[in-house]
């Protein structure tokens, strides 16, 4: 749960892209600046792929975190918004209602430590396990 894991099946929520293929033995970013043509081309590919899986979104609605890798490449968490934009896809793929999937997302929101330190986030592995558990009950 502390290291990002790749999920590609439409029944699962997806994590941020990784520049190290989620290899826990090493971590790191791409070291390419935001104006680097290779970096920009890779982000555009990721946007196109994300939109193909989420055709109900516009380009402007794609959260940046879902198409850019974290500095470590191992981030296991996404923002609440990163999860919200995936609810429709996951619900359809699982044959569940969007309301039910949204409820499970809300139950898996991690709050800032002591209510002050950090951000609201969703651990993708824990969320996907909770979805599997709910569907198998």
Could you spell the SSE succession in H and E letters?
HEHHHEEH
- How far apart lie the N and C ends? 22 Å
Task: Provide the low-confidence segments as ranges.
Answer: none
Percent of sequence in beta strands: 5-15%
Number of helices: 5
Percent helix among the residues? 25-40%
Strand order within the widest sheet? 1-3-2
Mean pLDDT: 89
Computed CA radius of gyration, to the nearest angstrom: 15 Å
Count of extended strands = 3
Oligomeric state as shown: single chain
Report the biggest beta sheet as strand number plus sense, adding barrel if it closes.
3 strands, antiparallel
Q: What is the 3D shape?
A: globular
**Structural class estimated from helices and strands:** mainly alpha
Keywords summarizing the entry:
globular, 3 strands, three-stranded antiparallel β-sheet, 39% helix, 5 helices, 137 residues, mainly alpha, 5% strand
What does this structure look like?
The chain has 137 residues and is mainly alpha-helical. It contains five helices and three strands; from the N terminus they run αβαααββα. The chain has helices at residues 37-53, 80-84, 87-94, 98-107, 124-136; strands at residues 77-78, 109-110, 121-123. A three-stranded antiparallel β-sheet has the order 1-3-2. Helix 3 packs across helix 4. The radius of gyration is 15 Å and the shape is globular. The mean pLDDT is 89.
Topology record:
Blueprint lengths: L36 H17 L23 E2 L1 H5 L2 H8 L3 H10 L1 E2 L10 E3 H13 L1
Antiparallel strand pairs: 1-3, 2-3
Helix pairs in contact: 3-4
């Amino acid at each position: 749960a502390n290291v990002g894991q790749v999920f590609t099946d439409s029944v699962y929520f997806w994590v941020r892209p990784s520049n190290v293929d989620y290899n826990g033995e090493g971590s790191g970013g791409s070291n390419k600046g935001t104006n680097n043509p290779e970096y920009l081309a890779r982000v555009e590919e990721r946007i196109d792929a994300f939109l193909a899986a989420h055709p109900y979104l516009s380009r402007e609605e794609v959260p940046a975190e879902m198409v850019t890798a974290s500095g470590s490449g191992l981030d296991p968490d996404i923002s609440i918004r990163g999860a919200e934009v995936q609810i429709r896809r996951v619900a359809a793929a699982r044959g569940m209602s969007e309301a039910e999937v949204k409820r499970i997302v809300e139950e898996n929101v991690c709050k800032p430590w002591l209510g002050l330190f950090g951000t609201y986030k969703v651990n993708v592995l824990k969320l996907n396990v909770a979805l599997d558990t709910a569907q198998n009950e």
